[in-house]
Amino acid sequence: MSISQDYTDYIAWDRLPHMWCPGCGNGIALKGLALALAKQGIPRHKVLMATGIGCSGRAGSYVSFHSFDGTHGRTIAFCTGINVAQPDLKIVAFLGDGDCGAIGGNHLLHAARRNNDLTVLEINNFTYGMTGGQFSPTTPAHSFSSTSKHGKVDYGMDMCYLVAEAGANYVASTTVYHTAQLNKFINEAISTRGFSFVEIASPCPTYYGRHNNLRSAPEMMEWFKERALPKEKYDELTIEEKQKYIMRGRLVQRDREDFLTMYMNELNNE
Amino acid sequence: MKDFLEGSHAVAHAVKICKPGVISAYPITPQTHIVENLAEFVASGELKTEFINVESEHSAASVVLGSLAMGVRSYTASSSQGLLLMEEVLYNIAGLRLPLVITCANRAVSAPLSIWNDQQDSEALRDAGVIQLYVENIQEAVDLHLFAFRLAEDPRVLLPVMVCMDGFVLTHAYEAVDIPEESEVDSFLPPLELREKLDTENPLSMGIVSDARFYMETRYAIQETMKEAIVIMPELKKDFIQITGRNLNVFFESYKLEEAQKVIICRGSVSGTVKEVVDEMRDEGHKVGALKLISYRPFPTEELYRALKNIPLIGVLDRAISLGSSGPMYTEFKALFQGKEGTPKISGFIGGLGQRDITKKHVREMFEKLDGEEITCEFINLNVEYLMGARKYT
Ligand SMILES: Cc1ncc(C[n+]2csc(CCOP(=O)(O)OP(=O)(O)O)c2C)c(N)n1
Ligand code: SF4
User: Fold this and answer.
1) What's the gap between Cα B322 and its chain centre?
2) Which domain CATH number covers A83?
3) Above 50 in pLDDT, residue B57?
4) Which domain holds residue A253?
5) Number of separate domains in chain B
6) Does residue A131 have its Cβ closer than 6 Å to ligand 1?
């Protein structure tokens, strides 16, 4: 298969139009991935997208390379299996904040700890989009959703810090409004060996927006523009203040041995 | 007074008037409207309960296990993948003899992913020690939820009860339903009093390891309770009828079985279609009838035998399959007649998987097929053109 230079080669145009709502951010994140793959000239047969179950997970239908869909929450565990069986495949998990941090949170933690060679793109729309806008672990405290009519009573989860602490090689966070940074982070993530994680804040005007007085996509984009703070500033906030802001920046970039390399070395040393 | 309600909302109303102290759930289509509506009741102050939204069904089932262990009435609901994820904990809840009430909004199981209706998910829990009741319509869903709390919590029972209602067909459909008054429910359903629970005043160990000397007895005890439930259920049903003034079937519903020569056995919402065909065919002079199964676990063997013993031709319509064998209800009915005198000819049909239509035409065809050779496992309304590649044996 020839090497692609054009991001459009990675999109399955014949499967469009997509099912996402007008103003949904999933498409921008998907384009970011296609751009990164094109930039690195990764042949289509050498890349696999494993998706979560959710709106973001529909992305697997819109790519022209391998895609894999299993059950809700297990995406990263499936990726671990795929990775050890086929180490030369570039694996990208594309999944929602629910899949990644709620039902699949344990897999996230342990894949990061093992430093499996995967890239996880977590599309954080602050809600369970697919099932109708219930709150998720990343929904900020006091926000409204179909399961928190009076405001959510627990704090949003900081997946970036969690994954960084657990041992990931690359961790970054941004929004789909900041596309240049988004594209750069995705590019860095997929070129890092080991566990890479990018949290991508993305608008869901249909649910998160509607429940929180951000009814249109432009309003949500404005919100990202105002509320996404560079990491240094974000780090100065109290935990209560952090509920109102999004972090933008790179937390970790390092070169710890990934799981499979370590495993092979151990075997060879025996 | 009757209210015009969506199936899910009707269930939420029924659960509300039973006043559970703890509700825990994780969203999954087509269960979501039930728990969202309950969340609204909690938010508006109409329902005073601890409503915990957790990170997965496994956690939801675990939360209600914990609250029940404290002796607090608890409720959860799920579907499909979610129910399967709860399975480990539901086995535990049954083994610990905790009276959970759970709604299953019946949905097909992945892969391929399907959000649509069939009954494969609850079938997967058949052997868990959970009482399973299947409803045909929304009124029955309301009534059997009230009944479920009473049955689960009866000190002679103390087992989880799952009310199974077809996803979308019932959860998302509207019907005029009678929701009993809270005072009526209060007299039907006394507050939960667990004799054995976690209590700081009277410490006890729950869920300890049991070695080969004790394990089997715990399973035997559940089996015995399931048999006793067959005696207890009609008793509780009498109370229900007395208080609500409404009839309630708890084992099954016999529909025009008098002098019937051919009967279709079915479960859940499809029963409406089957009954309509029975009406039409009766008008045309055919001696046909239907039996709608409600209580799958416990399986009321004797009562079913008495209802069916004079029927020569029976068809069983399963909306799930025990892959590698046949329809699970079908095998159950075959076994029921095993060794009995005058065993009928029983045919098994599989239909409606992933919400494939079962129309009146299909029901009629099933009735017609009962005249021919006995069929073990025939898929109805199968689209042969979609059978792919190597799997297309011609
Ligand atoms: C075991 C299981 N539980 C629940 C569901 C229902 N479900 C489908 S998608 C989803 C959440 C979607 O939220 P998220 O992962 O954040 O993705 P989004 O739709 O927001 O992109 C849920 C709860 C499921 N498919 N499987
Ligand atoms: S519901 Fe939200 S996340 Fe899902 S497609 Fe619509 S905008 Fe996107």
Assistant:
1) 17
2) 3.40.50.970
3) yes
4) 7-269
5) 2
6) yes
